[in-house]
Amino acid sequence: MYFKKIESFISKLGYSVFYQNEREGIFLIESEQDGIKNLIIGVAPPILIMEQYIFTLKSDNAEVMKSLLKKNRDIIHGAFALDEEGRKVIFRYTLQIENLDINEFAGALNSLGLLLSEYYEQIIEFSKK
Predict the structure, then answer these.
(1) CA nearest 95: which of 109, 83, 105, 103?
(2) DSSP string, 84-123
(3) Is-above-0.85 flag for pTM?
(4) Which residue in 49, 72, 78, 84 is deepest, having the highest Cβ count within 10 Å?
């Protein structure tokens, strides 16, 4: 039920789906104009999880970590996080799925697109450290 709902949102918003697996509740989408590439959407009731890989840390750089945490304060929705190994920086956003509507879903995607467009120069610099 929720998988089809999210599938219709993705379609209506014009995102490209590169992979989907209803049994696992996973979509892999992108939008070139928004800078979103290989965004993983996980349908895991009662929540929807969005994760976008940003870059891999080359070292445990305190300056980079501190800057990412400061930026989290500016992000309206979602946040930077690290994967289980503490090497990959991802953008993670979770939503309650039961009453999710297309406007809220679109807002989450727009938040990520805006973050990437505003912060891309710093992200590139961080990926080199």
Answers:
(1) 105
(2) TTS-EEEEEEEEESTT--HHHHHHHHHHHHHHHHHHHHHH
(3) yes
(4) 78
Contact 112, 52 (CB under 8 A): yes
The whole-angstrom distance between residue 68's C-alpha and the CA centroid of its chain comes to: 15
- Taking 90 as the threshold, does the pLDDT of residue 118 lie above it? no
d(CA 23, CA 117): 33
The DSSP code for 32 is G
Q: What H or E segment, with its residue span, contains residue 126?
A: helix 102-128
Structure tokens at 102: 């297309």
Q: Tell the burial category of 48 from Cβ atoms under 10 Å away from its Cβ (0-12, 13-18, 19+).
A: buried
Of residues 48, 68, 58, the one with CA closest to residue 123: 68
Which residue type is seen at 101?
D
Which pair of tokens denotes residue 94? 């979770």
Check pLDDT > 90 for residue 126. Answer: no
Q: What is the DSSP letter of 68?
A: H
The predicted pLDDT at position 75 comes to: 84
Report helix, strand or coil for 125: helix
